[in-house]
Amino acid sequence: MTSRRPSRTAKAQGQRAVSPGRPPKTEVAGRLQHILRVASAEFVNRGYADASVSRIAADAGVSKKTIYARYPNKDALLMAVAGELATSVYDVVMTAMGGAADGEPEEVLTAFGTAIATNWATPETIGVYRLFVAEAVRFPQLGSMYREIMARFRSALADYLREQCDAGTLHIVDVDAASHQFGMLAYGDIRERRLLGETVTEDDIVETVRQTVDVFLRGYSTTDPAGVHVGPSIAE
């Protein structure tokens, strides 16, 4: 009795079953985010000069070759860390603002202010901001990146304010300046306190944003708190 040899098709199927192949894109993306989180902690805790790619690789559980395959040098890794943080913060703030998009200006502005102030209070955001300030002279592109990040926030808020002016609920002559004013009122003091190492509580954020929205709407709303129309509504 002779044994049958497995067909070439069966062999090929068996080889495909055990071959690891390339990891899924989601797995690759998750691995890169993990590397950037580890690198962020390294840069924030040690500064750019003392940060070590070898230590980042060891802490992330990958090889230096893996990191350099994606980021050719430490400068590129630093820029990637900054870009990843900027994107994540922007997404969080825009999601919060979008969730309140159908509400009254008070609700939308409160959501926007709370989200951005909360992010400024986190150790990760304030740590990377310190890094930006410390290294901006050596790496001008960091300063440019920071300005671009903040411009995205101001632009998103300015677009909303412009819509409200067109709808007649707000009267703002310069919506770009107003969006900058709102941001500084909402997170300026919180950022300064965190930079000085002070603790900022959730209650601090809630009260700061409440006062910010109150002052802002008293200055730009077309109705007073009693609902009485008080001025023009078209942005000039």
From TrEMBL:
Q: Where is the HTH tetR-type domain?
A: 29-89
Can you tell which superkingdom this protein's organism belongs to?
Bacteria
Where in this protein does the record put region Disordered?
A: 1-26
Give the UniProt record's GO annotations in the biological process aspect: negative regulation of DNA-templated transcription
Q: Which Pfam families match?
A: TetR_C_7, TetR_N
GO molecular-function terms, A-Z = DNA-binding transcription factor activity; transcription cis-regulatory region binding
UniProt entry keywords in alphabetical sequence: DNA-binding, Transcription, Transcription regulation
Which sequence positions fall in the DNA-binding region? 52-71
Cross-referenced PANTHER family, in alphabetical order?
HTH-TYPE TRANSCRIPTIONAL REGULATOR BETI, HTH-TYPE TRANSCRIPTIONAL REGULATOR RUTR
According to UniProt, the name of this protein is: TetR/AcrR family transcriptional regulator
Report the source organism: Nocardioides pocheonensis
